[in-house]
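Table S2 (continued). Query chain:
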Amino acid sequence: MPENIPLLAMENPVFVTYAIASALMVLKIMGQGWMTVYRMMKSDSGLASPEDLRVSPLNRDPRPEQLDINDYVDRSRRMHRNDLENIPAFLAAGLLFVAVDPPLLLAQILLYGFVLARIAHTMAYATKQMHETRATFYTIGSVAVIAMALYVLFAAIF
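Corresponding output:
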C-alpha cells in the first residue's frame, strides 16, 4: 500500500474490509440480544433473574414459572453468549491484523470468512443442528482469528 495512506483509513481497502466485517459482527451481537428479548416477550417466559418477577408495564402478571428454562428463549441466549465469547477476539485480532498491512486477498478471506462462519454457526444453532455441524463453523471462525493473531505476532517479531 502507498506510504501516504494511513492503515486505519477508508482509503485502505484492508481497513474497509475490516470495517464492514466488524460492523456486521457488532450488529450480530446486538441483534441477538434483541432477539432474546423478543422471544422472552413472545413466550412470556425465560426470564433470567428473580427480580424480573416484579410487576411492571411489560410483566403485569409475574409468575414463578417465568423463571423456568424455556428452550425457545434459552437457545437465543446461548447464541448470544456464544457471540460474546467469539466476536470480541475477532474485533481485536482483526484491528491488529489491519495494522500490520496484510495482503488484501488474505484479509478478505480471513475477515469475511469469519463473518460467514458466524452466520453459518447461527443458522445451525437456530435450526437445532447437531453439535458437529455447529463445531465445524465455530472451527472455521476460530482458525481465521488464530491465523490473524499469528500473522500479527510474526509481523511484530520478525
